[in-house]
């Protein structure tokens, strides 16, 4: 399986800044056969960047999309409009769950909409600090996973990526702390087992699972060697070109 290194730029960079960053990144990294390098700029930048990017080296990702293809939905951007511009889309990021109140039902519809528009959804799941403290991590992970995939058919499971992002480890969290590789391993195992129960062992094995939460050049190697982890979803460090390039280099080295 490939290794996925995904940079989530969130609400950062103007279109011009995004274009300059992409230009530099394209010059910095050679094509790594087994590493899929992906960046998720703001929606405004996707159109110009899709004309600029070399898709053999870097793929584009949307940070969100709406579940209906067209209609009276003021302010939304549909996956049908994103079709052709991006290869991937982040769905159900914790900032959308907790700041913008998206629930599993809406997230499930978005997963289906991405797939029907030939965009690979990256489904983000993860517990908040108090849920972990109360021993609810397993239940939360299972609920978010089963809920988020409820409109994904058996045949379409191979078109999905899962990202485990413990909300308490994301750099913007009030008292963010680094997840230990053991903590990540434990939850990745729960994800894989839940997929197995629902879709069977073979199908479950083929689903890439990424980790995200304060990933940086110093800890990336540790997370990438956790059993069952197939890549990283990176926020803050992906905004700094040298750090993001370093993480890509690490991925190439540790997973060679
Ligand atoms: P972070 O963000 O790397 O800044 O913690 C990760 C994410 O929210 O996807």
List the helices and strands and how they pair.
Blueprint: E1 3-8, H1 15-28, E2 35-40, H2 43-52, E3 58-62, H3 79-82, E4 88-91, H4 94-98, H5 104-116, E5 120-125, H6 129-133, H7 137-148, E6 161-164, H8 181-199, H9 201-205, E7 209-212, H10 220-224, E8 231-234, H11 241-254
Parallel strand pairs: 1-2, 1-8, 2-3, 3-4, 4-5, 5-6, 6-7, 7-8
Helix pairs in contact: 1-2, 5-7, 7-8
The structure holds 2-phosphoglycolic acid (PGA).
2-phosphoglycolic acid (PGA) binds next to β8.
Question: Can you put this structure into words, describing what you see?
Answer:
This protein has 256 residues and is α/β, with parallel strands linked by helices. It has a single domain, classed as Aldolase class I (TIM Barrel), CATH 3.20.20. The chain has helices spanning 15-28, 43-52, 79-82, 94-98, 104-116, 129-133, 137-148, 181-199, 201-205, 220-224, 241-254; strands spanning 3-8, 35-40, 58-62, 88-91, 120-125, 161-164, 209-212, 231-234. The chain has an eight-stranded parallel β-barrel, surrounded by five helices. α10 links the parallel β7 and β8 (231-234). α1 packs across α2 (43-52), α5 (104-116) crosses α7 (137-148) and α7 (137-148) crosses α8. The longest helix is centred in the C-terminal third of the chain and has 19 residues, at 181-199. The model has no long low-confidence stretch (mean pLDDT 96).
């Amino acid at each position: 399986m490939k290794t996925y290194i995904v940079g989530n730029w969130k609400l950062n960079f103007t279109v011009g800044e995004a274009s300059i960053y992409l230009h530099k990144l394209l010059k910095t990294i050679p094509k790594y056969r087994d590493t899929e390098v992906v960046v998720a700029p703001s929606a405004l930048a996707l159109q110009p960047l899709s004309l600029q990017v070399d898709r053999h080296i870097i793929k584009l990702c949307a940070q969100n999309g709406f579940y209906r293809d067209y209609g009276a939905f003021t302010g939304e951007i549909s996956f049908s409009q994103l079709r052709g511009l991006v290869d991937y889309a982040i769905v159900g990021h914790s900032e959308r769950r907790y700041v913008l109140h998206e629930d599993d039902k809406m997230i499930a519809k978005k997963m289906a909409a991405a797939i029907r528009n030939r965009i690979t959804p990256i489904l983000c799941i993860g517990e908040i600090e108090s849920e972990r403290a109360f021993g609810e991590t397993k239940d939360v992970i299972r609920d978010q996973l089963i809920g988020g995939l409820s409109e994904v058919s058996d045949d379409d499971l191979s078109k999905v990526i899962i990202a485990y992002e413990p909300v308490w480890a994301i750099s913007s969290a009030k008292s963010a702390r680094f997840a230990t590789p053991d903590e990540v391993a434990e939850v990745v195992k729960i994800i894989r087992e839940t997929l197995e129960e629902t879709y069977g062992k073979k199908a479950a094995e083929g689903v890439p699972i990424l980790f995200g939460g304060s990933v940086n050049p110093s800890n990336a190697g540790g997370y990438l060697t956790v059993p069952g982890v197939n890549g990283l979803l990176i926020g803050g460090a992906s905004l700094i070109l040298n750090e993001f390039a370093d993480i890509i280099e690490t991925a190439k080295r540790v997973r060679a």
